[in-house]
Amino acid sequence: MSDIETPQISRGLEGIYIAESRICKVNGAEGRLYYRGYPIEALVKNSSFEETTFLLLNGKLPTRAELDDITRQLADARDLPQGVVRIISEMSGKAESMDILRTATSALSAYDAETADMSPAANFRKSIRIISRMSSIVATIGRMRAGGSYINPDKALGHVENFMLMLNGKAPDKQALDIMKDMFVIHAEHSSNASTFGTMVAGSTLSDIYSAITAGISVLKGPLHGGADEAALKMMKQIGDPSNTESYIESALAGKQRIMGFGHRVYKAYDPRAKVLKEYLLSLQEHSSEEVRRYTAIALRAEKMMIEKLSASHGIWPNVDFFAGPVYVAAGIPVNLFTPIFAASRSAGWCAHMLEYWKDNRLFRPLEKYTGQIDLEYVPIEKRQ
């Protein structure tokens, strides 16, 4: 392209395809989501995080022996190096949870003898360690922010159950465990979203996988991406009483404020993950706290109003973040862990995309249209006005 031509700029890379992938299909027009061809609804209903991780990394559902093997590998990798535990302890109370997660995950590279080994086999082994230990890091962040100390993992427990043990110091009740198992599966993957793309950009330089995952965590932190679930729950807290919902939404829309948890760059129909979480909230009503019932009532009234006002005309529907907050509250998860748990779950998808992309790697190097001046005369500092 010559300098005199006018390039077509796609702001935010909207509508631009960056690669071919067999990992995830997002059908935004129909509101469908598939991991390796399997509908998200089927995986939430039938699969575990361990099985979903195997599926994402290997491209197929595991046999019983393969599932037992990856379950053992994830369990064996759970314990955190003491240096990483010290980092979490030092940063607790001084930094946001996502900042601690980013730093602690980056530090894991110092304790991995294979960090610089870029062979496919080594990168797969490192992926298992990252997926396992990020959950341990998040649980320890929550534990220490609450004034507790590091809890050694239990290899006999499943991935999510062990996460809850390390977080709370006791085995979770069935309701909380069932919720978190589903949340880990729901958040495990979502195609080339901002954090996955950030991971791939870092990895495309042939940097190590710890650097790539740390980049993904950094991207996920923003409220327009992973932090939206916290923002949506904050809105519900501001509404306070369900009866205030309509007036709050009316005022926000009149002031052209963004209603967090609504709208999506890809989905122009109801986010299938949001449907799953909405059904979950409704099923919990008889067994949830007054706080969760209040948030649910606010969410349902806000959803109804937004659908009536914007869904048909603008294609703005609830996304996964809108219902995630109340679901996490029902499982006893503190707000400051919402996005870190998202990251711990998504580590499976990030690693899967990185392993796939490295098979036919090409450095990401987009162009930009320069709109400034050129050939300016350099003026010595003493002569500048």
User: In total, how many domains does the architecture comprise?
Assistant: 2
Largest sheet: spatial strand order: 1-2-3
CATH superfamily of the largest domain: Citrate Synthase, domain 1
**What is the first-to-last residue Cα distance?**
38 Å
Structural class: mainly alpha
**Averaged pLDDT, please?**
93
Number of strands: 3
Q: What ranges have pLDDT less than 50 throughout 5 or more consecutive residues?
A: none
Question: Brief overview, please?
Answer:
The chain is an all-alpha fold and 385 residues long.
Task: Report on this structure.
The structure is a single chain. This protein has 385 residues and is mainly α. It has two domains: 221 residues, Citrate Synthase, domain 1 (Orthogonal Bundle); 103 residues, Cytochrome p450-Terp, domain 2 (Orthogonal Bundle), CATH 1.10.230. It has a three-stranded antiparallel β-sheet with strand order 1-2-3. The longest helix has 26 residues. It is globular and about 70 Å long.
Q: Helices, strands, pairings?
A:
Layout: E1 24-27, E2 32-35, E3 38-39, H1 40-46, H2 49-58, H3 64-76, H4 82-91, H5 97-107, H6 120-145, H7 159-168, H8 174-186, H9 194-204, H10 209-220, H11 228-239, H12 245-254, H13 272-284, H14 290-314, H15 320-330, H16 338-357
Antiparallel strand pairs: 1-2, 2-3
Helix pairs in contact: 1-8, 2-16, 3-6, 4-5, 4-6, 5-6, 5-10, 6-7, 6-16, 8-15, 8-16, 9-10, 9-16, 10-16, 11-15, 13-15, 14-15
